[in-house]
Design a protein that fits this description.
The complex is a heterodimer of chains A (607) and B (350). Helix content of chain A is 38%, strand content 19%. With 607 residues, chain A is of the alpha/beta class. Chain A is globular, with a radius of gyration of 27 Å. Chain B has a single domain, classed as Thiamin diphosphate (ThDP)-binding fold, Pyr/PP domains (Rossmann fold), CATH 3.40.50. In chain B, a hairpin with a 5-residue loop joins β11 and β12. The longest helix of chain B has 15 residues. The termini of chain B are far apart. Classes of the chains: A alpha/beta (607), B alpha/beta (350). β19 of chain A pairs parallel with β2 of chain B.
Chain lengths: 607, 350
């Protein structure tokens, strides 16, 4: 018996969207839907089509609603798109709501018993008897719940025109070596595909057509890319504490360290990884390990940075190196732990009490997540200070297509460290003396033999010789040199990336906003508004940023927080240009989309 | 030029096996109150390090905030000091001890720094058995902020102002034993002989040593109503055993009569001989140690000496199976995977 079926065709004679659409899948978390969704995304990717995925998941282990959006884009746009052409509705809890906010003409695949087809007339419905199909295809009732989701992958593959061989390959890839699971899932997927073949008419709303856009690309998330950067940077001490969305950065690192960080001669580990009792202790481990000469890091999110801030101030003042990854989430307080935001900009720029200024890196792509993580360890040791690598949940935990990473062939920069001989030759050793005029002093490492170079590191007032001091002159000498050191960093941090259309109007963004800004810039240009886009990649602001700010009539600062935190840093740094900065904001927890940017800039322009 | 009468030659200061004099183990001048018990502890750290021929450049000295936390500046100038933030000394010692496992780590903390704000870090450092001598200079009072109660203050004890402590004390020693610490001792800053022996034993121990030293505050907690005054402690100090410390390179036995001596062997071959004054006291018996401490506390006594020892517990760098050489100085050749390995990783992601 054929299922009730609208012969789905785009209304109003709209053209079929080929390799240019979004699919949203609504499921319950803990049901194995993440595997199914990744397989669907990977299958489209293997068809040579540029694709990106956004997992909108709850702060919960099992039983709450979750949505996964897959966007295919022939033009290569990978930002979240707010409208979806296909919906797959598996969650009875949210199905009615999902229908209510569906875009007109969307194609809706749903679990047959939900009986959604009477709710709206402007949608095309495809009911699927998932339970019947799973019962027939999977012999183990215990696994029905998990395998059920694979059925919709099969149905969607058939409707979209995805080659079933690619789907099978994607399943094998996703379930790496788990033979039984691969077989079960492939069987379920084929059952869905075959059922759709027999029972559904084809549709021409959305189609995947084989292309060659993804040849040689990888799929990776930012946390893994950062973990790889740290691996190649030779991190030797990791102190960490679990927190969403930063945990997988260290967890992925641990997996790679198992394979790549054993001394081949002894089999012993060349990295110490300790899960600490809290973020405070993690920060202590990072800074003291850096102080003792190791390359050290931690990975956390906003709440962790709040807790670490006391230590970060110590690291700044005593000049101890360490790399702090902040995979930002939605604040304040616990906020929305599984949603994205760029709301720790000001926190990371100035973490801790007193006058503090930190070097921050803002990777915006997977390649930058890798490269900046690598560079962060050089910067930490060169500048003897905590370095922040700031990403967010969107970069850190979502799947991104990327070019494979280039080998970081630049040798490690271990900074100004004096060895036994250099210490012996030095006439006037002072830990905090500015010998080279760049604000960066020379340091010695504990354990250096020879009887010279020992000193006491202290978070209390100290002079250039690391002696306790409360004298105003001594205090100023140190803190003013720290400011000079920060100035020196301007020529060492990555400069901005430009995408110029020849305009005196600027758009400025950083990190995960990049894909949405690129798309928005193209849409605005098509509407007649050209802009010059500067993507900021670090603090402090470099000379190119200075020039850009001076030159532009207006600068739209796009960021994912409520208060325009980056715009605030700009207004503070460039007070004479303060009125140029207009905030374009997106902060509801979802990743930013192009439309939000276009709408806000258009509104400003019409004023 | 006239020939002056030659003055008697100054006798050369005695040197240890490394050729250092005791003067090579001192630090800056103490700025603590005159007569502070902490200075007596500092003096014994200097003596013990000298007598044990500790290599000064391998010593690191960690502290948090408080009077006790100032003292690392007063001993072993050849070592590196790190005066960090309040209650966070243990994590500072953890990171550095992992970065360089050849360091000899001494942490000096106080009862406020360790039993209140730093309780979490104390507990977890002990659990992890990080290689360090953790000295708590315990006076039951916040000295640096001018005399508030700490968490080790006895219930019912009085401040100079007359305020009474309503809460029971936390005992660092029973807590450390509970947490699995392999070397737990208590001493009194007024008992230099015992303190010296315990410190020398501590230098030979590989994991975490918790050494709670009752150290009366002469300024804020040395009045008659205090249970941490010199007078009170002198009357209630109850030494558990005499210690003779035998370094592995010395063959002769110290003069502890056979039958009353227990020899505990450390992983490096060093031995600590313990004379138990309680009949049948077994320092390797965790439960017995707990019982003895609790019984003495019930009597209002400070049981001092080596309370518990387990010499076979692996310290953190061993648990983590780290390479023998310091992580801090490993070369890029060992740390950075090759281009072929990156290629392999990239292919697995395609």
């Amino acid at each position: 018996m054929t299922a009730a079926l609208a012969a789905p065709s785009p209304a109003g004679g709209a053209k079929t969207r080929i390799n240019d659409f979004s699919i949203q899948v609504a499921t319950v978390n803990g049901s194995g839907s993440q595997t199914a969704n990744t397989v669907l995304l990977r299958s489209i990717f293997q068809m040579g089509v540029f694709v990106s995925g956004k997992n909108l998941f709850p702060s919960n282990i099992a039983g709450l609603p979750t949505w996964f959006t897959i966007r295919a884009s022939a033009q290569g746009y990978v930002a979240r798109k707010a409208s979806n052409e296909m919906l797959i509705l598996m969650n009875p809890e949210t199905a009615k709501e999902d229908i209510a906010r569906a875009d007109a003409n969307a194609l809706v695949i749903y679990d047959e018993p939900l009986q959604l087809d009477k709710l709206r007339a402007d949608l095309s419905y495809i009911p699927v008897p998932f339970q019947k199909l799973v019962t027939a295809s999977c012999p183990e009732p215990k696994l029905h719940k998990l395998v059920k989701n694979m059925i919709y992958v099969g149905v969607a593959a058939r409707l979209l025109g995805i080659d079933m061989e690619e789907v099978k390959k994607a399943i094998a890839k996703q379930l790496k070596g788990k033979t039984k699971a691969i077989e079960l899932n492939q069987t379920a997927c084929v059952a869905g595909y075959d059922w759709a073949m027999e029972n559904l008419e084809d549709q021409d709303h959305v189609k995947v057509v084989r292309d060659n856009k993804t040849q040689g690309l990888i799929i990776i998330d930012g946390n893994e890319a950062c973990a790889l950067g740290a691996l190649f940077a030779g991190v030797t001490v990791v102190g960490w504490y679990p927190i969403t969305p930063a945990s997988s950065l260290v967890e992925t690192f641990i997996e790679y360290a198992e394979e790549y960080r054993k001394d081949p001669k002894t089999g012993k580990s060349t990295v110490a990884i300790v899960q600490m009792e809290d973020e405070l202790a993690s920060a202590g481990v990072v800074l003291s390990a850096g102080w003792a000469g190791a390359r050290s890091m931690t990975s956390t999110a906003g709440p962790g940075i709040s807790l670490m801030s006391e230590f970060i101030g110590l690291g700044y003042y005593v000049e101890a190196p360490g790399v702090f990854f902040n995979v930002a989430r939605t604040g304040p307080s616990t906020g929305l732990p599984t949603r994205t935001q760029q709301s720790d900009v000001e926190l990371c720029a100035k973490a801790s009490h007193g006058d503090t200024l930190h070097i921050n890196l803002y990777p915006g792509t997977m390649e930058e997540c890798f490269q900046f993580s690598y560079d962060a360890f050089d910067l930490a040791e060169r500048f003897q200070t905590p370095i922040f690598v700031v990403t967010d949940l969107d970069l850190g935990m979502q799947n991104w297509a990327s070019k494979p990473f280039a080998y970081p062939s630049k040798p490690y920069d271990r900074g100004k460290v004096l060895n036994q001989q250099q210490l012996a030759e030095m006439k006037d050793w002072g830990r905090y003396k500015d010998v080279d005029g760049d604000g960066i002093p020379y340091r010695s490492l504990p354990g250096t033999p020879g009887g010279k170079g020992a000193y006491t590191t202290r978070g209390s007032g100290h002079n250039a010789y690391a002696q306790y001091s409360e004298k105003p002159g001594d205090y100023l000498e140190v803190v003013d040199r720290l400011k000079r050191k920060y100035e020196t960093a301007k020529t060492h941090v990555p400069g901005p990336v430009f995408r110029n259309q020849g305009s005196d109007k600027g758009v400025l963004a950083f990190g995960s906003s990049d894909p949405a800004v690129i798309e928005a810039q193209d849409i605005l240009a098509a509407q007649g508004l050209k802009t010059d886009y500067l993507r900021l990649r670090a603090l402090p602001f470099t000379a190119e940023v200075d020039a850009y700010v001076k030159e532009k009539k207006v600068v739209y600062v796009v960021e994912q927080n409520r208060d325009g935190q980056m715009a605030n840093l700009f207004r503070e740094t460039y007070p004479e240009h303060a009125t140029k900065f207009k905030s374009v904001l997106h902060y509801d927890g979802h990743a930013i989309d192009a439309k939000s940017i276009v709408d806000q800039i258009t509104a400003f322009e019409q004023k | 030029m006239t020939t002056a009468t030659p003055s008697a030659p100054v006798p050369a200061a005695p040197t240890n096996k490394l050729g250092f004099t005791k003067q090579d183990y001192v630090g800056s001048k103490s700025t603590l109150c005159a007569g502070c018990g902490h200075d007596a502890i500092t003096a014994q750290i200097i003596n013990a390090a000298f007598e044990s021929s500790i290599e000064g450049h391998r010593v690191t000295k960690y502290s948090g905030i408080g009077c006790s936390s100032k003292t690392p500046a007063y001993f072993i100038n050849q070592g590196w000091g790190f005066n960090s933030v309040h209650g966070r000394m243990p994590s500072i010692a953890t990171g550095a001890s992992l970065a360089n496992r050849t360091l000899i780590n001494i942490g000096v903390s106080g009862d406020g720094d360790s039993m209140s704000i730093g309780m979490g870090q104390f507990v977890h450092a002990v659990r992890r058995n990080i290689p360090m001598i953790y000295i708590i200079e315990d006076n039951g009072v916040y000295g640096l902020t001018k005399g508030q109660f700490s968490a080790t203050a006895d219930k019912g004890s009085h401040l100079k102002t007359g305020a009474v402590n309503d809460f029971p004390p936390i005992d660092p020693c029973t807590l450390a034993i509970e947490l699995g610490c392999g070397f737990v001792a208590r001493s009194f800053s007024g008992n230099p002989k015992q303190l010296n022996a315990l410190l020398k034993a501590a230098f030979a121990y590989e994991g975490t040593v918790v050494l709670d030293v009752i150290s009366p505050c002469v300024t804020f907690n040395n009045h008659d109503a205090s249970t941490r005054s010199y007078k009170h402690v002198k009357d209630h100090d109850f030494p558990l055993h005499d210690l003779g410390f035998i370094q592995y390179s010395e063959v002769e036995q110290v003069d502890i009569p056979a039958g009353e001596t227990e020899i505990v062997t450390f992983p490096d071959g060093s031995k600590v001989a313990i004379k138990a004054i309680h009949e049948g006291y077994e320092p390797t018996d965790r439960f017995g140690a707990m019982k003895a401490i609790h019984e003495s506390m019930a009597k209002g006594e400070f049981l001092t000496g080596l309370l518990y020892i387990n010499p076979t517990q692996p310290p953190l760098p061993e648990v983590l199976n780290l390479v023998e050489e310091p992580l801090a100085t490993l070369g890029e050749d060992l740390l950075k995977p090759s281009p072929a390995e990156l290629d392999k990783i990239m292919h697995s992601l395609m």
